[in-house]
Structures are given as structure tokens and as C-alpha cells.
């Protein structure tokens, strides 16, 4: 069976308003994060994938299943939507238990899996209370519990960290990482770019309904050729190293670190850069302690490709 | 031809009927609970039982002479035809059925159902069944209570009328009318709530249509829930003044033809609703 989520030339128009345009993507297992400003089409992409809206053009396949075929698709997919609303008067327990019963499970099995999913998000104690009395973070958690309760292979999470306190956020991230390691597909939209860096195997950048870039953060960064890569080198003689490196034409900028124990260098050709750095280190002129990319994170590529500081969602 | 029919039967047999049955039972249970035990259901209870309260007062505080039984029989028929069919069940079903899809879109909770492994057509039909069950339970109970209170006051004569006379047959007919009214109006309001963001204006137009329907040509009379139901009334109601408009005799139709006609109308409306829900998109921002 196909193990990819595939968008083939998918467009969605809401009347004359563009949702997404000609998106082609192939998403493998692991954690993929959708990044883009408000109204960029992230939620539309997720809703298209789950059949809540239908594409105007193109084809979508989720591990070989079409979103049109809800009964088959929703056995393998869980969707934690961003809508902060629930059926009226329902308790956390009933919310999850009812959804599992709709999968055709026995009461005993649904009971067991409800308890398990509530425990996973640490909401077991509040399960018997009405959701209307939950805090925002608890509502976010119970939605997540409902999405993972039936052990889906694909988990779609629209801004899943919104409203969570730092502790709950760390727990959720740990849960996502664990699920990603288990071979699940996780498609997450988030505007917290530091956390995107921590959890993502891949990022998909969209803006204005168009796909801007996709791949691992490092891959995407290297593809942004008009913005030379920045590297921080910690060494004993940063000024000497800067002079040496700056003599080659692919090195376009050098700046000493404020503590005087390192130098930021920008290069247009990272392979030649590392080759030359190895040569300098081998000659023994400079003792290099560490070499770290300084701008191949989600925030930097967001800034370069979308043109903001990443504060937007 | 036979091959095609055979393939169709084979296709039907391959469907997951057992799973659908389990899902349907759960969905109906969830919906019935929400229809009957929510704050918003209060006014449906009010619509169903307000005649019961009035008849109860009549039962407690007024004397009952056996010769007045035919008058009370006429009153009961009027309550069913002029109140329940035209107003009580009409607005009760508007409240129950317009909430099933549109209400959930307004509350932004419909997507939870659409994200479950339940075929959308099954979801819609289960909501219809749950709505019909809830409405029949309320209005049917009220009708039985009305019937019992009307004849209880007459003592032995009342019991004789019910158990040895036409009483039970009339009760069966009233209950059949209530069931068909709930299903008929329910199907229509379910569809209207999927088409219109606010189904109330369309419902008021429908109310007007139902009121003038008896004076329309016979072909148009077939597009009315109330006109079918009037043919099933066990006791004819005569009214004067403005109420006469509600009791105009439509073109005579036999009871079985009226029942079949209404069931076909319900099936047609539900089929179109199934088509609509298949292409329904969740865009709460437009609600």
C-alpha cells in the first residue's frame, strides 16, 4: 500500500477567493510541519486532506485512500481541527467514547481506548466533567485525545500547541515525537517556529495559497541561494580565520561574535566553504572548536521566503 | 437485465450492514439524548403538552355529561388537525430538525461527525430517524394523554366509547397522523436547514403554503404535508371564520393513497438531502 500523502496539482477556490493553488506534494512518514502566515492556506490544505472541503481541481490520496471515501479514510486518520467547539453539554469521556463507538467498537474496547487516550494527554482526572467547564488548554488536550484515540496512522493537527501552558506544550511535543518515531504521519500546522525546529522532520512553507518550499529544514535553507548560508565557527583566532575565509569569493560576509571567541561567516557555496575550513584546520593555523549553521532554522527560512519574522500563524 | 439486477443484489450484500447498524444505533442514541434532554428542547415540550394542560384543567374542573362526549370528540379532532398538524408539530419539528445539521454548523461541532468513519448518507438518515423518534415521542405521548383525559372524565361511558366503540381506532389514526406529520415536516425542515443559513423565513413560507394549499389545484395539493394528513382524520372537523381556511376539503383521496403519497414525498426529500450532505463543505466562517 502507498505510504505517502499525495497532493497532485490541487487547487481550491471559495467562489472567487483562492484557498490554495496547484499544490503538488508528497509527504512521507514522520513529522511534517505546515508553516505560513494567516490565510496562507494551511487549514485549507488540512481540510482538503480530510474531506471537509472538496478540491476544485486535482487529486488527493492519503496512504492510497481518497478523502471522498470517509469510512475507510477515518479508520486510519485522526484530525484535531482548530475549531474550539464541541457538541453541547458533553463530558470529555463521552466525547471520546462516542467517537470510538462510531468506529464500530464494542463498549469494552471503546472504554479501554478512551481511558488510554485520556491518560496519554494527562486528562484522566477531568474526564467526567463537562467540556464547557474546561480551560482552553484542556479543550485542546481533549481534542488531541479524540484524534489519537483510535490509533490512527495519520494524524493531522491544526495549531495543536495553541493555548497550552509550557509544561503541557512540552508533553505534547514529546507525544508527537514519540508518534513520529513509531512511523506515523504527523501533519502539523504551527506558528511557533522554535518548536517547528525541534519537532519537524520536514517543513512545507506556503503563502497566499502557493507552495513556496518543502523538504527538511536544512534542504530548504540550502535551496534559498540568494541568501548565503551563515555559519558560526568557534575558534581560538576568529579574526585570522575570518581573514583567511574572506579571501575566497564565495564568502560574502564575516562578523565577529560579541564574545570575541567566534566568527559568523556567510557563504554562497557551503561545500567549498567546508572544504576550505577543513584545509585551514588541518594546517593548524587556527584551532576550531565547533562549527554550527546559524540560520538554517525555521525562523530564518520563514523570514527569507515569506518575508516576516515568523510571528504570524 | 437479470445480470445487472444480480450484480446489484451482490453489491448490496457486500456492504457492511452490521457495522452500519452499530453506527446507526449509536448515532440515534446520541441524537435522541440531545433532542430530548437539552435546555433548547423546552419549547418543544411546551408545544406538545400545552393542549394537554388545557384538557387536564377541563378534566379536573368541569363536569362531564355523557351527551357531551361527541362535542369533546370533536374538540380532540380539532386539537389534532388545527393545532398539532398546523402549528404544534410544525414548529416543534422546525426546532428539532433545523438543529440537526444547521444548528451543529452554527455551534461548529458538525465536523466531529463528518470526521468519523460513518457514510454521510447514513449520518443524515440517522439524524432524521432520531429527530422523528424524538418528535413522535413528545407529540405522540401528548396525543395519548389528551385522548385519555378527554374520555376519562366520562367514566363508564367513556370507557365504553374507547374499548367497545370507535375510540381506539380513532386513537390509532391520530397516532398515525402524528407519526406521518413528524416525518413529513421533519424531512422538509432537515432539507431547508441544509439549504438556508436561517430556515425560519422558508418555514414561514411553507406555513403559508400549507394554509392555502387546500384551495390550490389538485396537482399542487400533492406538495403538501398537511393535505395528505387531513385525509387520514378519523373525525371530520368543521370550523368557521378564519379557521375554515384550515379545514377546506381537498380533493378526496383514499387513506392508503394519502399515506403512500406522503411517504413518497418524504423519500424524495430525503434522497435530495442525502445528495446535499455528500457535497457539504465545512466552512464555519460563513455561518
Please describe the structure with a list of short key phrases separated by commas or semicolons.
heterodimer; A: 313 residues; alpha/beta; Rossmann fold; Alpha-Beta Plaits; 2 domains; 6-stranded mixed β-sheet; 4-stranded antiparallel β-sheet; 11 helices; 36% helix; 27% strand; elongated; disordered C terminus; B: 287 residues; mainly alpha; 12 helices; 75% helix; globular
Describe the structure.
- The complex is a heterodimer of chains A (313) and B (287).
- Chain A has eleven helices and 13 strands.
- Chain A has 313 residues and is an alpha/beta fold.
- Chain A folds into two domains: 5-221, P-loop containing nucleotide triphosphate hydrolases (Rossmann fold); 228-294, Alpha-Beta Plaits.
- Chain A has a six-stranded mixed sheet with strand order 5-6-7-3-8-9, sandwiched between helices.
- In chain A, α6 links the parallel β6 (154-158) and β7.
- Chain A is elongated, with a radius of gyration of 23 Å.
- Chain B is mainly alpha-helical and 287 residues long.
- Chain B has one domain (17-279).
- Chain B is built from twelve helices and no strands.
- Chain B has helices at 2-14, 17-36, 42-61, 69-106, 110-114, 120-152, 155-163, 167-195, 200-212, 218-221, 225-230, 255-278.
- Chain B is globular.
- Classes of the chains: A alpha/beta (313), B mainly alpha (287).
- The interface between A and B is medium-sized, with 28 and 27 residues.
Amino acid at each position: 500500500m502507498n505510504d505517502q500523502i499525495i497532493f497532485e496539482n490541487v487547487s481550491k477556490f471559495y467562489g472567487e477567493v483562492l484557498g490554495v493553488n496547484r499544490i503538488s506534494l508528497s509527504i512521507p512518514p514522520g513529522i511534517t510541519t505546515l508553516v505560513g502566515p494567516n490565510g496562507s492556506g494551511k487549514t485549507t490544505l488540512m481540510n482538503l486532506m480530510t474531506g471537509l472541503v472538496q478540491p476544485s481541481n486535482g487529486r488527493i490520496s492519503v496512504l492510497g485512500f481518497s478523502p471522498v471515501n470517509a469510512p475507510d479514510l477515518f479508520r486510519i486518520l485522526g484530525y484535531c481541527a482548530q475549531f474550539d467547539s464541541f457538541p453541547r453539554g458533553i463530558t470529555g469521556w463521552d466525547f471520546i467514547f462516542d467517537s470510538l463507538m462510531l468506529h464500530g467498537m464494542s463498549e469494552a474496547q471503546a472504554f479501554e481506548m478512551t481511558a488510554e487516550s485520556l491518560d496519554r494527554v494527562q486528562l484522566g482526572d477531568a474526564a467526567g466533567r463537562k467540556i464547557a467547564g474546561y480551560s482552553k488548554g484542556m479543550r485542546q488536550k481533549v481534542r488531541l485525545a479524540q484524534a489519537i484515540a483510535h490509533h490512527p496512522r495519520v494524524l493531522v493537527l491544526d495549531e495543536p500547541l495553541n493555548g497550552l501552558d509550557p509544561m503541557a506544550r512540552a508533553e505534547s511535543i514529546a507525544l508527537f515525537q514519540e508518534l513520529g518515531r513509531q512511523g506515523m504521519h504527523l501533519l502539523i500546522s504551527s506558528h511557533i517556529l522554535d518548536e517547528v525546529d525541534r519537532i519537524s522532520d520536514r517543513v512545507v512553507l506556503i503563502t497566499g495559497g502557493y507552495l513556496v518550499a518543502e523538504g527538511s529544514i536544512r534542504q530548504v535553507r540550502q535551496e534559498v541561494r540568494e541568501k548565503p548560508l551563515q555559519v558560526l565557527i568557534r575558534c581560538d583566532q576568529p579574526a585570522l580565520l575570518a581573514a583567511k575565509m574572506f579571501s575566497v569569493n564565495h564568502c560574502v560576509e564575516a562578523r565577529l561574535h560579541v564574545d570575541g571567541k567566534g566568527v559568523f561567516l556567510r557563504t554562497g557555496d557551503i561545500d567549498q566553504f567546508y572544504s576550505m575550513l577543513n584545509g585551514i584546520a588541518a594546517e593548524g593555523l587556527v584551532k576550531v572548536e565547533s562549527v554550527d549553521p546559524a540560520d538554517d532554522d525555521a525562523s530564518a527560512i520563514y523570514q527569507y521566503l515569506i518575508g516576516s519574522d515568523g510571528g504570524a500563524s | 437485465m437479470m445480470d445487472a439486477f444480480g450484480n446489484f443484489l451482490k453489491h448490496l450484500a457486500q456492504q457492511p450492514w452490521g457495522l452500519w447498524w452499530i453506527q446507526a444505533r449509536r448515532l440515534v442514541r446520541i441524537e435522541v439524548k440531545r433532542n430530548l434532554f437539552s435546555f433548547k428542547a423546552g419549547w418543544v415540550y411546551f408545544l406538545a403538552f400545552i393542549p394537554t394542560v388545557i384538557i387536564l384543567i377541563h378534566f379536573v374542573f368541569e363536569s362531564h355529561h355523557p351527551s357531551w362526549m361527541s362535542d369533546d370528540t370533536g374538540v380532540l379532532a380539532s386539537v389534532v388537525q388545527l393545532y398539532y398538524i398546523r402549528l404544534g408539530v410544525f414548529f416543534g419539528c422546525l426546532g428539532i430538525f433545523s438543529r440537526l445539521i444547521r444548528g451543529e454548523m452554527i455551534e461548529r461541532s458538525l465536523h466531529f461527525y463528518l470526521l468519523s468513519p460513518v457514510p454521510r448518507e447514513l449520518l443524515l438518515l440517522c439524524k432524521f430517524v432520531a429527530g422523528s423518534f424524538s418528535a413522535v415521542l413528545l407529540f405522540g405521548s401528548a396525543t395519548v394523554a389528551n385522548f385519555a383525559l378527554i374520555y376519562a372524565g366520562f367514566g363508564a361511558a367513556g370507557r365504553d366509547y374507547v374499548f367497545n366503540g370507535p375510540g381506539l381506532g380513532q386513537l390509532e389514526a391520530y397516532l398515525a397522523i402524528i407519526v406521518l406529520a413528524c416525518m413529513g415536516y421533519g424531512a422538509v425542515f432537515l432539507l431547508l436547514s441544509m439549504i438556508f443559513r436561517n430556515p425560519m423565513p422558508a418555514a414561514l413560507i411553507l406555513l403559508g403554503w400549507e394554509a392555502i394549499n387546500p384551495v390550490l389545484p389538485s396537482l399542487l395539493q400533492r406538495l403538501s404535508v398537511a393535505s395528505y394528513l387531513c385525509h387520514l382524520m378519523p373525525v371530520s372537523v368543521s370550523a368557521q371564520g378564519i379557521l375554515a381556511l384550515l379545514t377546506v376539503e381537498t380533493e378526496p383521496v383514499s387513506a392508503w393513497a394519502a399515506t403512500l403519497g406522503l411517504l413518497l414525498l418524504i423519500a424524495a426529500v430525503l434522497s435530495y438531502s442525502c445528495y446535499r450532505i455528500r457535497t457539504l463543505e465545512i466552512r464555519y466562517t460563513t455561518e
